[in-house]
Amino acid sequence: MSNKSKLKNGIMITFIAKYSNVITQLIINSILARLLMPEEFGVIAIITVFISFFNILGDMGIGPAIIQNKSLDDKEISDIFKFSVMGALVIAIGFYFFSYFIAFFYTNRIYIKLGFLLSFSVFFFICNIVPNALIYKKQNFKLVGIINVCANIGVGIITITLALNGWSYYSLIFDSISKSLFIFIFSFTFSKIKIKKGYSYNAVKKIRNYSSYQFLFNFINYFTRNLDNILIGKFLGSSTLGYYDKSYKLMLYPVQNLTNVITPVLHPVLSEYQDQIDVIYDTYIEVVKVLAYIGIFVSVYCFFSSKEIIRIMYGTNWDKSIPAFRILSLSIVIQMVLSSIGSIFQSTGYVNKLFSTGLVSACFTITAIAIGVMSKSLEVLAMGIVISFAFNFIQCFYVLMKHVFNKKFSEFLLNIKNVLIIGFIMVCGYLLTSKISIDNVLISAIVKLVIGIITYLIGLIITKEYKLLKSIIIK
Q1: CB-based contact 346:271 (threshold 8 Å)
Q2: Which residue in 69, 190, 173 sits closest to 122, CA to CA?
Q3: Which has the closest alpha carbon to 42: 314, 236, 257, 311?
Q4: Which InterPro entries match (predicted)?
């Protein structure tokens, strides 16, 4: 099977699984948003930031390294798994003790109790790294999808039941622990890891060079993605963080759930062609175009329908999230294209470039967040983040094109120039119909969706980009 056939089959399977998860998660979150208050979501948002950090410490870049290295035998996999379990235990205990610092920093002792409970979530998440990587390495994307769909539906129903019975943020804690446990058990079972006797550190040494750069990138990227939550929670309060967290996560839905249909498949498939750069380049350009053309539609629609989306998803209690969500939606198209770049650095073996571009990106994002928090305005913060994503896009793709593909950055920009034209046509369509006022938010969202689709199709026809999308759909 060719690389494109493998990629398309993987994307189709991942698409079905991913969107089953999206629908499930949207329903669950919509219900929970009406059962719990912004302050309760804010409390969980704060400690979730630190869970992500400890998960990264436990990951150590092991997953991508296992996928990339094609020479690991069963004994070496067994040794790496044992190493990850030992690391999981140490890091989970470390997270519990770190929760005392969180309680001190935010002057709320509830984080000690939550830290103890969530240390179990950290443990099972890290234990799952090797089994999950093996399933991806075998390109069994269908299995990954089934496991995640079952976890979301089963645990989600119980979480809603607990919230209805007044469990407050403990219902969300249960959700986190149960999902990590459920996914680990099934991933371990179906990955068929063969646990061998004895232990040797040589297997870890074998992947250390690759995994270290991946780990450093993940470490830097963590602060890039989570510093805003840390500072908002400290200086602007949990309620403000609750509003911001909802707007940011809602903006990430299309980014994660559209790109995550493609990016998890890119690395396992394209890593087989790591010595054929031209093959990877030709395939990747098609992927970028698809992400860009989908992204521009979602980005423009979300910008002009921000009020309707927030109210449909979360209700009027979350209206303070609307301005931040409107601004953040401008970055959706940028992030959709940018989020795919890591898989290419991984599959070509240039994880050192992944780390260096991540370091520069962190500088842009940290500066934007600091300015936004000092202004005490979520709108200023959101605008700064959008600008930082634009700078990150430029520097990341410049490095990728010049140092990995040996192509001109200007050539890459010309490949996606029509995205701006399509976006401009959509904006004009919304501005020309802006005087249409509909009180019912659901009907208003549908009308705006129709306007968006019509103007989007006009843009595709004018630029003739419909031919690309048509050929991909037919294939």
Answers
A1: yes
A2: 173
A3: 236
A4: Poly_Biosynth_Transport
